[in-house]
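Bench log, entry 3. Co-assembly request; chain sequences pasted below exactly as received.
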Amino acid sequence: MHLNNEQLLELDDIAKSHLACCSDCRNKVKNIASLRMGLTKLPILKMPTNNWQQTKQAYLLQLKEQQAEKSKKEMKFWRAGALSMAASLLIVVLWEMPKLSVNSHMPPEKETQLSQLIAHNQLLQQEFSQRATASINSVYLVQLNEELSNIDKALQHAYAESVSNKEKEQLWQQRHKIIGQMLLATEQQKTITI
Amino acid sequence: MSKNKGFQQEISTELIRQAQRKDIHAFEQIYITYADACYGLALRICGQPVLAEDIVQESFLKLMNRIDTYRADGLFAGWLSKIVTFETINRLKANNKVSSLVDEQMISEEPVDLFDSNWLEACLDLDSLLDNLSATSRAVFILHEVEGFNHKEIADFFYRTESFSKVTLSRAYKLLRNVVSTAEQESKYALK
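Structure output for the full assembly:
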């Protein structure tokens, strides 16, 4: 039994062992080799125009879009982190607020100062959250956010451990300073983007 | 850079490394080296110059985005030609140019002795001869006989079985042989 056309076109082990003892099939394989040799004479087709510049532009555009998408995702991630941290901090503060007013030995004006500081922090946090919806791509901002998270943790700890109001006030001031820097950075980023 | 042509050209591993670091000049070098080969492959399969140019651009964008996934376990040109082939076949599928026959329908027909001689020898314009094939047959023929892909690889390109590739190739040869025989007979009559 000779090899069929399909077997001749791509020789497997069985076909190869058949070839060893069949001159007819060997001749056909030789003819296929000649046919294939003819196909190597197919002319090389040249691109009518060099489209490298177009391809390069398309690639750079894709790259820009990918980077913007990545920054957006990163921003969303750490914004969500900052918001959840701020929310948990707010819960702690609200929980501690009545105790502060009843048990505090602080003079009333100092107490008001701390409350104002907390309220101002919340306002800045809100403002920052609104601005942060735009795509922000800044290492500096990420660092500031890291610092903010650390301060928030320290504040939570301070309230949990009922540390003195003076220490709390210092932490709130630090927080106020950092969030102010973040707002400034988003403002600069916005200006650069424009 | 080698003196070969088309996908037989080789590029240095250093150039590939530069490209993997997203160096735009390295990409340009790769483009200059292989753009014509990619265009030739795409055009021979799809048969449309404008579409072929578009396929080349899309393939190079894929190359630039995925070059870090290239492992030097095979020829770079082979990797690139697979990208071009996938892109071309996907375009053909999108344009409904790929045969919708299911594999069970691809049964072999009555045996014909296709390789008793080198009947292609007399053919002067191979590209025109290949135009007689359907898009699917031409794709399988070019991929197996010119680009050197095996049936398993071709089956993967089409998401079909190996028998699909085997039968399509055999049918393509049969059709080409008929065209060549008819042309030979016609020229004989013309001479008489």
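The radius of gyration of chain A is 36 Å. Residues 5-39 of chain A form one domain.
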